[in-house]
Specification:
mainly alpha
């Protein structure tokens, strides 16, 4: 894979992560996820 292809894939993955985070904040699920992470770690 060339560097431009890796950059595009990386940008898409980053955008997907930010979108999931925004949906989690909007629906109020972020607190539940934070509690699960605290218990797991």
């Amino acid at each position: 894979m060339d560097i431009p292809e890796r950059r595009i894939i990386g940008a898409l993955i980053l955008l997907l992560g930010i979108s999931c985070l925004a949906v989690g904040i909007y629906t109020g699920q972020l607190d539940t996820i934070a509690e699960l992470l605290k218990k797991g770690l």
